Amino acid sequence: MKYKPDIQFARDLNKDNEMLAYKEKFYQDDDRIYLVGNSLGLLSKSAEKEIMRALDEWREHGVEGWTKGEPAWFWYGEKLGDMTAPLIGAEPEETIVTGSTTLNIHQLLASFYQPEGRRKKILVDELNFPSDIYAVKSQLAQHGNESELVVVESRDGRTLEEEDIIAAFNDEIAIALLPTVLYQSGQLLDVKKLTEAAHEHGILIGFDLAHSVGILPHDLSGAGVDFALWCNYKYLNAGPGAVGGLYVNKKHFDRKPGLAGWWGHDKETQFEMSHEFTPAEDAGAMQISTLPILSSAPLFSSLDMINEIGIEKVREESLNRTSYLAYLMAEKLDTETVNYSIVTPEDDSRRGGHIAVKFEREAYRISKALKEAGVIVDFREPDTIRFAPSPLYISFEDLYNAVEILADIINQERFEEVTKERGSVT
Fold this sequence. Notes:
Layout (H helix, E strand, L loop, with lengths): L6 H9 L4 H4 L9 E2 L10 H17 L3 H4 L7 H13 L6 E3 L3 H12 L8 E5 L4 H13 L6 E4 L9 H6 L5 E7 L11 H10 L3 E5 L11 H4 L3 E4 L14 E4 L48 H13 L1 H22 L2 H4 L1 E3 L12 E5 L3 H10 L2 E2 L1 E3 L3 E4 L8 H16 L15
Parallel strand pairs: 1-11, 3-4, 3-5, 5-6, 6-7
Antiparallel strand pairs: 2-8, 7-8, 9-10, 10-13, 12-13
Helix pairs in contact: 1-15, 3-11, 5-11, 6-7, 12-15
Pathway: Cofactor biosynthesis; NAD(+) biosynthesis; quinolinate from L-kynurenine: step 2/3; Amino-acid degradation; L-kynurenine degradation; L-alanine and anthranilate from L-kynurenine: step 1/1
Pfam families: KYNU_C
Subunit structure: Homodimer.
């Protein structure tokens, strides 16, 4: 599409855009433009109703809500897993909603990492989210293999080359754990290519979908991915600290969970209270503790909404917004003032749901000035601001207005008016 740098063009883009109907379903301040959908999604009115429904069921049924809730609380994880499966290209029985990102990494590595002979190493990349690395190191330490971590380096400090990852595959590596989308730069990795290469070397491979689930389609089963995990509070708008999710390829259903817990027990006999653990016959076996109902209920609304739109349509609208955002920045920002560059790949097939912008100087103060002006973004050390326009509640006019504010802050050097003092959360 050929863009134009004026407000009327943005309004014209909005005119026939069916996503605007969803914008009204979310709580938003009129004086705020919320561009951190990749950090914490906004509250929808239907998600609020789901929370209230769960509270009403608790009030009415008490403990009987486990069977009398609609749906029964006892089956929340499985039902939400069924609803998630189309988004990640999986079978319903391969998908379960449970735990949290880091807890699920621990569970999956405890289940899949079985060092034997020369295969003792776990491969990661240097750009992965810190919590993933903490968990991997912790699992290695449990086996006395602290030195068996293989870290694939980035050539530019922003992105990864699949060829470099594949070159690091060898017969000493047991497992590779990689992100689908890099949390800093927004680069999308080629999951199928990496999975095929890993399997050619006899390596099990898993992916962290935290920055891709709900914003772009996946084909985990088709690609043959062994396992995956994600959070639901970013593009799936399930709320702060919402329950996470995980995927296990059905070829691994005979694998016992490394961390057994009663919620992973076969549901038909769970309440026989036997001390002999009988795992569920599918991904449900990887559950550990009782599902937190109040932090799971909003996900019903979010998944209903995404499935109603269709994940392919969400992806199309997301790419349109990030492309338009990049265009406006190129048109309106004075590059000499702070010397910025977009580090997210321009190619649609290589880009996730956000745009990462590197500033040669004053990135933190620019992000702070944006927030003070009502444009909510996030800053990532040492010099990057991330802009994540969720197509569910961000319009093209929102993006135009956001870049106008950004241009004023940069071109007029208004960031100089902002203190350099940093908060604990950026």
